[in-house]
Amino acid sequence: MTARNETSLSLDAGGTETLIEVRNASVTFDMDRGRSKVMDDVTMDIHREEILGIVGESGSGKSMFASALMDAVVDPGVLTGDVIYHPPDGDSFSVLDLDDEELKEFRWEEISMVFQGAMDSFNPTMSIGGHFEETLRAHDYNVADGMDHGRQLLADLYLDPDRVLDSYPHELSGGMQQRALIALSLLLKPNVLVMDEPTAALDLLMQRSITSLLANLHEEYGITMIFITHDLPLVADLADRLAVMYAFEFIEVGPCYDILKDAAHPYTRALLKAVPNLSSALEEMEPIEGDSPDPVDVPSGCSYHVRCPLADEQCRSTDPGFERVSDGHEAACFYWEDAREEITYTLSDREQEVTFDERR
Ligand SMILES: Nc1ncnc2c1ncn2[C@@H]1O[C@H](COP(=O)(O)OP(=O)(O)OP(=O)(O)O)[C@@H](O)[C@H]1O
Q: Which residues are in the ABC transporter domain (predicted)?
């Protein structure tokens, strides 16, 4: 892989090791109705061994960010900027400099991805065991050793390895398929697992059980996890940090605990207000008014200004940079202090459990 003239480890101000640096990354699609900018100058560090939750409304650019991490933006999308990977045991390199062969290696062995629909990821005519063996062979791994690790992963995910490996995808329930897919993604011992709405098609109980199994895997193998979802309470249970996306860029980033307890960006606060809360009456839930922007025509200044109750002339004309809220907590808003006073929300019982959990 292409080495860069950089130190192999970067430390941010807080002394946290950075595993992936995304620098000024943008993605554009040229369409008949104009240029669509679906990722807008995004800069973000992913820390080693953290669980990062990425949340935002549908269409805000979460999946595009995941694709950019692996240089997997689909044609004719154009990714610019840089994605620098700092492997735990080697020289740093730019993911965008990798050739096809290097990318294939990188995508399974360094960063692995789990998508929402397990059924679409498995070949229906091949047993689960066949998928595991094929993956090991394609990457020149020892099949016997690799299958031992695969069995262990399946057992870690509370699946019966023999039964699952002998089964065809349709013979397993949705929850079992999704767990088998997570085990397959971890087969080559990647450093990073990116999950894009991995539990969206499952019932609430299975979602919770998978997030708790992921927490165990994280503990056992020290994997860096990126969990993408529109379901804020779900990821709050799992994540160390939250990054909130709005209109193709991040607008607030910080420790999960801090953001849930007292979010700074008006959009995040509105999102927390809109979250279904089983313990409160339906009329207390407030959906966010207005629509999210069209990527061909993103509003000037702060892209949230058209929906924001605090917006003024400055917000309409000037794009706010990130402002420091507290250690590791930043928000892209001129008026985050006012937002904290003027936009109120109540945490659900579940979120209160998370925010009062002292580990976070
Ligand atoms: N192949 C494509 N061509 C053009 N635009 C695209 C393409 N794929 C995605 N987009 C646009 O990019 C934007 C971001 O999409 P993305 O899938 O990243 O959003 P998301 O936040 O992951 O949404 P969801 O939660 O619904 O999956 C959307 O406006 C979408 O329409």
A: 22-272
Protein residue with least CA distance to atom 31, ligand 1: 59
Q: How far is the CA of 78 from the centre of ligand 1 (A)?
A: 14
Q: Is the CB of 37 under 6 A from ligand 1?
A: no
- Of 81-95, 136-150, 166-180, 341-355, which range is least confident? 341-355
Q: Please give the pLDDT value at position 352.
A: 67
Gap from CA of 226 to ligand 1 centroid (Å): 18
Distance 294 CA to ligand 1 centre (A): 11
pLDDT, tens digit (0-9, with 9 covering 90-100), for 83-134 = 999 998 889 999 999 999 999 999 989 999 997 766 678 999 999 999 999 9
Q: What are the domain boundaries of the chain? A: 252-355
| Banded pLDDT at 7 (limits 50, 70, 90) | very low
Ligand 1 in contact with 59 (CB < 6 A)?
yes
The DSSP secondary-structure symbol of 126 reads: S
Nearest to 16 by CA among 44, 42, 45: 45
Q: Which residues, 6 or more positions from 16, have their beta carbon under 8 angstroms from its beta carbon?
A: 47, 48, 50
